[in-house]
Amino acid sequence: MFNLTGYELSLIFLVFFLGGVLKGMLGIGLALLVISILGAFLSPALVVALLVMPIVTSNFWQAFRHGLPAGSIRRLLPMSLVFVLFTSLGAMLLTSIEANPLFVSLGVIVVSFSLLNLLGLKLIVPPHHEVWAGPFIGVVAGLMNGISTINGPPLVMYLVGIQLTKDDLVKAFGLVTLFGSVPLALSYIRVGLFGLHEFFISSMTIAPVFLGLWAGQIIRNHIDKELFRKVLLIALVLLGANLIRRGLF
User: Fold this and answer.
1) What's the rounded Cα separation, in Å, for the pair 226 and 99?
2) 3-state secondary structure (DSSP) of residue 6
3) pTM of the predicted model over 0.90
4) How many domains, in total, are found in the chain?
5) What burial letters (b/e) apply to 26-55, b meaning 16+ CB within 10 Å?
6) Does 140 fall in a domain?
7) Contact assessment for residue 58 and residue 209, using Cβ atoms and an 8 Å cutoff
8) Which whole-number Å values give the CA distances from 59 to 65, 117, 128, 142, 163, in the listed order?
9) What's the pLDDT tens digit per position in 186-241?
10) What is the mean pLDDT of residues 48-66?
11) CA 198, 199, 204, 208: dihedral to nearest 10 degrees?
12) Domain span at residue 174?
């Protein structure tokens, strides 16, 4: 059981609100922001446990608030199924795998991809390559998700590469990560990271996250397509750099 002070609870609610703003605006970043900030003050086990309920509920809201075209769902289904499988595997390996090399490697890939796109060289995944590229991303993102709840950089990198529209990208990310969040929660229960006490505290963070989602949604509605793409890529650079930092320090 974790005993939290009033100051720690206030900090938790503020950070989850900011994570909700980021997720509402760009569709990504909740887990990375929370882990990056709260990881410096609270135990990693508590931070991971706190993320379970807001991740499940916010991904559900993000995926189904306005729906996703059936064609996009079929297009993402192979990656989603692999993502679910390797999320469970990653959670099982949580206590034994060395995550730092994985963080550094993925961070380098994400930063390189994003910088090249920002410089005008758009890296596009042709439709005939989606048959292998989607499942490959599902493996990488699933392992990352199970080990740390972080899945945004590889998934969004792929969704940018297949050229989804601004709103479809946000909804698609929510749908794919929703698929992974349920086995993630079940796996954390199985390995003893998520019990009744953790469930109670994690549920308390849902309200500030959804308040942040609402604020972020308003911001996103006032950003045009090209500006959204640039902001998203800059966010990916920062998130990728943070992955490298986590792997090295």
Assistant:
1) 34
2) helix
3) no
4) 1
5) bbbbbbbbbbbbbeeebeeebbbbbbbbbb
6) yes
7) yes
8) 10, 26, 28, 15, 21
9) 877 887 778 888 898 899 999 999 999 999 888 888 877 778 778 777 877 887 78
10) 82
11) 90
12) 6-248
Question: What pLDDT band is residue 172 in, cutting at 50, 70 and 90?
Answer: confident
pLDDT digit string, tens, across residues 118-128: 787 667 888 88
137: closest CA among 158, 113, 112? 158
23: Cα within 13 Å, side-chain hemisphere: 35
Give the CA dihedral 144, 204, 58, 208, nearest 10 degrees. Answer: -110
- Residue 232 included in any domain: yes
Report the range out of 71-85, 139-153, 222-236 with the highest average pLDDT: 71-85
- Classify each residue of 173-186 as buried b or exposed e, where b means 16 or more C-beta atoms within 10 Å of its C-beta: bbbbbbbbbebbbe
Distance CA 118, CA 76 (A): 25
What would the two tokens of residue 30 be? 């909740």
In order, the DSSP letters of 181-207 are HHHHHHHHHHTTS--HHHHHHHHHTHH
Between CA 86 and CA 11 the distance in angstroms is 32
User: How is residue 157 written in tokens?
Assistant: 């990198």
Residue 1 lies in a domain: no
Residue 82 confidence class, pLDDT cut points 50, 70, 90: very high
Tell whether 131 is covered by a domain.
yes
